[in-house]
Structure formats: structure tokens, C-alpha cells
Amino acid sequence: MSFEALNLHPSILKAIQEAGYTTPTPIQQQAVPELIAGHDVMASAQTGTGKTAAFMLPALHTLATPAQIRGRGPRVLVLTPTRELALQVSEAAKKYGKYLPHINVVSILGGMPYPLQNKLLSQSVDILVATPGRLIDHIQRGRIDFKRLQMLVLDEADRMLDMGFIEDVETIAAATPATRQTLLFSATLDNAIDKVAAKLLKTPKRIQVSSPKSKLDNIEQRLHYADDMSHKNRLLNHVLRDEKLKQAIVFTATKRDADSLADNLYAQGYAAAALHGDMNQRERNRTLTRLRNGGLRVLVATDVAARGIDVADITHVINFDLPKFAEDYVHRIGRTGRAGATGVAVSFASVKDSMHLTKIERYTGQRIASHIIPGLEPRIKPRFHNNGPRGTPNVTQKRKRAPFSGFDSRPGFGATGESGRNRNGQGARTIGPDNRGNSFRSNNGNKASYQAARAK
Ligand code: AMP
């Protein structure tokens, strides 16, 4: 099927062509005609399936016809659980709507200053992309007029449910005209989502694209139980020494942890660097270029920063911390096994993560086998999550601890810490060659000079 067959406005087709899209993705093929026909739609689709365009293209198509009702309020409202997603949606709206006349896209996000938002809302708005909490503030202050609203999109509704935003979403929906068209996108369509849909959608068309399971078949998923931070660090050291590992992405929960872990790995001699949202675009691009040209062996990243990385040589993804959401697990491990290659995804979990693991497994429809590395066995045995071939070592390894990890057990991975020194106050030691076989000696442990060296 071609985009032309979807009967979208020619200006939208021009923008799609410019974006380099040739064929609509399955979710676009199914959702766009239903939406253009005016139906409510509830669709299960993950990020990465093209779901943003699946609702944004019909939304823009609606906007190509002048509003029937006079006013300045939004004609399309997209609610998202996170600021990052809201920004991505706004970018998509601008990208696909660039050849339509005067599409004003406004983002209203928590944590941003009110005066600027008040100013943006005082102008004529076509598409409003918002996180629920802040939007409610503005609604209560009477700053938004929804009488022109034609389309309400709930993006990643399952996450909004998980994050406790659903009441807010319902309050917002109640402030919009009953004549609106409502779209709900969610990673999964389960009972809880059905209840939300029953309240907010009118006889919706249900669309399901293939589950994430099929996408993960070329990725071997492994689980290691870790007692504490120190144990995680030793496990990581072990995994990174695997000869089959060409390049790896290690995911941490926070930006700060990504920085500290990258510094510590660098101090150990790994060609490692961090990638996260606090870095400016130039720094991010430079790091990604190094990853692409093989200058980096280990990238330590947060979820948002690593989205969309497509590097064929990434053989391993390591969840140093488990992701908050099952959907992110799929995004993360999908960074390996690109272009038909096989990949390895290693997750570290504590016994407290059992419920979390169950959620991930339910989402992917796959079990993650737990592995034990001789010499690095967990002290605490998990009681609830015993699904893999426990006791079966995945890698042959001598029964001895890694000679030097450079980490200690407190959060923040501190032994080298700000000073870049290990716990004996010595500079970091040389550990090994980088991925190009170069002998890789770290300097005397000064963090500033690490960074200078890394910037080269
Ligand atoms: P999403 O699932 O909305 O996060 O989209 C994932 C990525 O797919 C984005 O980078 C889009 O630019 C891209 N994309 C969306 N639709 C298409 C398409 N029909 N062909 C190629 N890429 C697409």
C-alpha cells in the first residue's frame, strides 16, 4: 500500500515524502482510513511502529479543512504521559504539517514556566500537546477554550494509567465537546484500558498490530540476580569482558548514574562514554558518531537518549538498572540484533524486582532465563522468579573475582567518584584493550583529564 492510497491531503503527502517514508507502517495502514472516516479508534502499538504518524497524519488532514466554529482554542489535543513524548509528538506535528498553512503547535508541559505557557495559550492554537497535570491547571484557570476541539488523542494510555493520570485525563476529556473524535493508543489493550475506553470513546474501532514478541526472536535475553551495587559492577565487568561483545549499550536509571558509570568504566580502560538528556546536542552527536565509527565500545545511556540508536555492531544491551516500564525494556533491547543480526540482552535485577520482571515478561510474552556466573553467584536467592535454567552458567569463567572493579557498593558507583580515584586513593588502573585492540591506559585518575581525553 502507498501513502497516496490513504487519501491524505497533498501537503501532508509532500511532507511524508520529504521525511523519506515510502510505505505506511501496519498501524498507519489500519488506523489512518478509520480516522479519516471519522471513527473513534483504540489501537495497540508500541513506540517504533510509526504510531505517532498514525494519529498525527489524520489529525493534520482534519486541520486542512477550516474550522467550522470560530475561536482560538485547539482543534486537536494530544495527551501524553511524559514531557519527552510530548516533545516528540510536537516535533512530528511540525514535520508532517510543514506544508499546510499556519499550523500552530503548542506544548504545555509540567516543569515549564507558566508566563510563557500563558502567552502561548493566548494565541490561536491548532494542535495542543500536553501532559495532563499542567493542562488541568490551565483549564482550571480558564485559559483554554475547547469549543473548537475536534480530536482528542490519548497517547500511551497504558502509561498514563500506570502513572496515575487517568483521573486527570477523564477530567480533561469532560471539558471537551462530546462531539469530538477520540483516539486511544496503548502498548497493550487489557481490561484496565478497556474500562478507560468505555468511558471516553464511542464505539471505537479496535486495531492491534503484531506484538513486540516477534521482534525479539533474534535476541538472547539473560537475567542475573544482583545483591547490591557492588555485585552489579562485578557482573558488568564480567559481561564486558565477553570476547563476542563488539559494542554495548548499558542502561542506567538516571543521567547522573550514566555519567558516573561511564567515568568508572573509562577509568578501567574501557572505551566508554555517557549519553543522556543533559548533554547538549553537539556533545550527543559527537558521542553517537564515535559509537557509529567504532571509537566507543561501551555507551552508558538513559532511555530517552538512546531511543532510535541504530548501530549494527551493538552485540549487547545491558540493563544495569531495569527500566521503569515494560515498553522501555523492548526499546532498549531492540538496540541490539539490528538488521537481522543476533544480539544479547543482559538484565541485572534484585530479588525486589520480581514483580517488575513479571510485568516485562507478560508484555513481551517471553521468559527471561536467569543465569549464574561461577564466582559471582547472588547471595540472596530469588523466591518468586525462578523461571530459567538456574545453576547453568552462561559463560565459562574462572572462579575468581574480577581483579579490580574500581567501584564500591554505594549508589553512584563511587570509588573513583568525582576525583576519579579508586578507594585506595590511587589513580585508576589500566585494564585492557579497547575494541580496536589498542592498548588502553587511562590517565592518572583526574576526572577533568578523563573528559578531555574522552572528548578527543
Ligand atoms: P513512532 O512509533 O511514532 O515513535 O515512530 C518511530 C519512527 O518511525 C519515527 O522515527 C518515525 O519518523 C518513523 N516512521 C513513522 N512512519 C514511518 C514510515 N511510514 N516509514 C518510515 N519511517 C516511519
From TrEMBL:
SUPFAM superfamilies xrefs? P-loop containing nucleoside triphosphate hydrolases (SSF52540)
Name this polypeptide is given: DEAD-box ATP-dependent RNA helicase RhpA
InterPro entries tied to this protein: DEAD/DEAH_box_helicase_dom, DEAD/DEAH_RhlB, DEAD_box_RNA_helicase, Helicase_ATP-bd, Helicase_C-like, P-loop_NTPase, RNA-helicase_DEAD-box_CS, RNA_helicase_DEAD_Q_motif
Establish whether keyword Phosphoprotein is in the entry. Answer: no
Q: Where is the Helicase C-terminal domain?
A: 218-380
Helicase ATP-binding domain ranges (all copies): 32-207
Q: Quickly give the catalysed reaction.
A: ATP + H2O = ADP + phosphate + H(+)
Renumbered to this chain, region (Disordered) spans: 376-456
Task: Show the Gene3D superfamilies listed in the entry.
Answer: P-loop containing nucleotide triphosphate hydrolases
Recorded source organism is Nitrosomonas ureae
A molecular-function term among this protein's GO annotations: nucleic acid binding
Motif segment (Q motif):
1-29
EC main group = hydrolase
Q: Which family does it belong to?
A: Belongs to the DEAD box helicase family.
The Enzyme Commission number assigned here is 3.6.4.13
Q: Where on the tree of life does the source sit, at the highest rank?
A: Bacteria
**DEAD-box RNA helicase Q domain sequence ranges:** 1-29
